[in-house]
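Dear colleagues,

I hope this message finds you well. In preparation for our joint manuscript, I am sending the Aminopeptidase N (Saccharopolyspora gloriosae) sequence together with its predicted structure, so that both groups work from identical material. I would be grateful if you could confirm receipt.
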Amino acid sequence: MFKRTGLRVTAAACCAAAFLATPASAGTGGPGAPGAGDPYFPEYGNGGYDVSHYDVRLRYEPRDDRLAGTTTIVAKPTQNLTAFNLDFALPVKSIRVNGNPSAFQQQGTELTVTPPAELPAGAEATFVVDYDGVPSSVEVDGLNPWIRTSDGALAIGEPEISAWWFPGNDHPRDKATFDIAVDVPDGTEVLSNGVNTDTSTLAGRTTWKWRTTKPTATYLAFLGIGQYAINTKTGAFGQPFVTAYADGLGEVEGAAKASVERTPEVLDFLAGLFGEYPFEAQGGVVPAEGLNFALENQTRPTYSPKFFQDGANTSVVVHENAHQWFGDSVSVDTWRDIWLNEGFASYSEWLWSEQQGTGTAQELFDHYYSTAPEDAFWQVAPGEPGPDNIFGDAVYDRGALTLHALRNVIGDEALLDVVRTWVEDKRYSTGTVEDFIALTEQRSGKQLDEFFQAWLFTPGKPAATPENGVPASATRAGVAVPEAVAEIDATHRHVHDDH
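The corresponding structure tokens are as follows:
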């Protein structure tokens, strides 16, 4: 993962309703908002409409990284719209709204569309965008998340990537289903989300079709194009289990397979904790080059080969698959809420370690809590990390510490009840840190303001008190280092490397 810097920051986030509907004056239409008003990335996403489906059809040439596409967006205006914005960076050839040619202007990733007639609130509409460009050559505000490789490309990134391969409403609040079809030269493989519905060849080219039927945030849609060995089996819960390993992995190939092929076992374990797996397929992708991080692409995480350079690493597989519940099914309402993704994914590694006998969650807590108070690690508050620290160590490791401390305060049964209620009530939607705190207090029957203030919102090391969930074991000198620490630390070094 990577961090976006130099962005304008507002004082507070818009609520979900304000994001999807910024009403015009009574009886009149107006343009949709050009951004979601996210406090960390206010220009991401758009207002005035809600997308239900993307149909993305692409023709890709690995030799020169040229991408030609037509994306059809099925959406419903949430206000009377005279104009609206899409998030997109590639050169646009034409746009039709409800079949009619429409005017447009493009600046950076802001694509402003003016249809010939006002779009009425609540009436389903289609936006068809034709485009053609070279994604690796398009930079906006110093950013280009598209990864060109020697044999293809990777469209993988967080919090931004979609604008470099399909136009859309690029914010986790507006999820949609996807059909993705990619035409490539014969002998080139394409990976994406969900289920491979068809693969056909004609005149020296192959079209790969992928479909995901569950609501998906735009940044969690992905492409892996190149030379891959693709394997399809039956995984956990009787679902399709699709893995892909790039040619050229060399000496890490065995370790990568020894890790990623355990995905069904990991999902069984996680479902036992969190409840029903929320999607229709599972798997993993390991490219040979270009990627320095891992990402929880919905149904099919992608892993840098760096994770396996020292041997098998199941911690990263646990981390990315825990995100299928925390981040993918239940997404951040704004990017300020990133602890809800990374804290839970990191704590899931601790629970896996406990189950595998390589260190209990308490032993891991003791190890990380023993970090000196003056360490920079303690100076970032996970509940308000700031846009430059959304992938900082504190969000991951202090985030996991928070959850274990909470376990110590409210007990195992209460914490499991809170977590299972959270993922069930928020399935396919979004949540805020404040929502989680309120639910925790409601389900546990405890008043926890001071606890969460210390762990999530106050820079500095939380005091070693029972009220903060810190047992005496965490303050002893010479804390033992659990076996799992090396693997977990390696995971967190690469899972949020700058791109």
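For the figure legend, we might mention the following. Residues 418 and 442 are 9 Å apart (CA to CA). The radius of gyration is 23 Å.

With kind regards,
E.M.
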